[in-house]
Design a protein that fits this description.
Its cofactor is Mn(2+). GO terms for molecular function: metal ion binding; protein serine/threonine phosphatase activity. The protein is of the alpha+beta class and about 250 residues long. It has helices spanning about 45-60, 65-90, 140-145, 150-155, 195, 200-210, 215-225, and strands at about 1-10, 20-25, 30-35, 100-105, 110-115, 120-125, 130, 175-180, 185-190, 235-240.
Length: about 250
């Protein structure tokens, strides 16, 4: 497997509250995107703390790479990280009220395990199809799920950035989990809403499958910035076929 990842603060914000990282060993890759809660204190602290804590547990990981074991490990680890971020927000006055989204994916040559909280997304893609495999924990996401809002209207809704669930905002939050084999898909994209709010799913798919590999991440970031760039933009792509360019950060 090969991968790339990149983050950009966008054109408007002075601070990048996103964090993105990929950690790999001989058997698996852990890819993470975290988007610190905009408008809250220390969003950048929350997102980086989530990354750092996940890295710590990943480096200390001892166990089988069996799918069921890895799924249990990722779920329990995200809960631990959630509680660490929450405790930091409660003990440090400068971090009061902070939180972050998180989407974390364990990728092996055979299967994927994804855990997420918030509205950062994961997509699976091949040359002809794409599938969003996470559901946004957001106001408009809930309205879409309950049939009160169409997907098209959700994309332009004025309150589409209102998050209903974020890591670090209360104790023992559990992530949604998604487990699958690669099957007909060969690429995974995880990203913050600074990207998914600016490009349609079809545009994301077209760029990722048709752009020169080394230029994919910068092309996507440039497109988001050219359409306003009001938010931070972060993404990671893992390619099961070994055809993504060298890692970028």
């Amino acid at each position: 497997m090969r991968y790339l990842y990149q983050s950009d603060k966008g054109k408007i914000r002075e601070l990048n509250e996103d964090a993105v990282a990929i950690f790999s060993n001989e058997e698996a890759i852990l890819a993470i995107v975290a988007d610190g809660m905009g408008g809250h204190q220390a969003g950048d602290v929350a997102s980086q703390l989530a990354i750092d804590e996940l890295e710590k547990y990943w480096l200390a990981f001892e166990g089988t790479i069996a799918k069921d074991y890895f799924e249990k490990w990722l779920r329990e680890t995200i809960i631990k990280v959630n509680n660490t971020v929450y405790q930091k927000s409660q003990s440090d006055i400068e971090c009061k009220g902070m939180g972050t989204t998180v989407v974390a994916a364990i990728c092996t040559k055979d299967y994927l395990i994804i855990g997420h909280i918030g509205d950062s997304r994961a997509y699976l893609m091949n040359q002809s199809e794409w599938q969003q495999v996470t559901e946004d924990h957001s106001l408009v996401g809930e309205l879409v799920r309950t049939g009160q809002l169409s997907q098209e209207d959700a994309e332009v809704h004025p309150r589409r950035n209102v998050i209903l669930k974020a890591l670090g905002t209360e104790l023992n939050l559990e992530p949604d989990m998604y487990v699958t084999s690669w099957n007909e898909y060969d690429r995974l994209l995880i990203c913050s809403d600074g990207l998914s709010n600016k490009l349609t799913d079809q545009e994301l798919h077209e760029v990722i499958v048709h752009t020169n590999n080394e230029k994919i991440s910068q092309t996507l970031i440039d497109m988001a910035n050219n359409r306003g760039g009001e938010d931070n933009i972060s993404l990671a792509i893992i390619d099961q076929r070994d055809k993504v360019g060298d890692p970028t950060c």
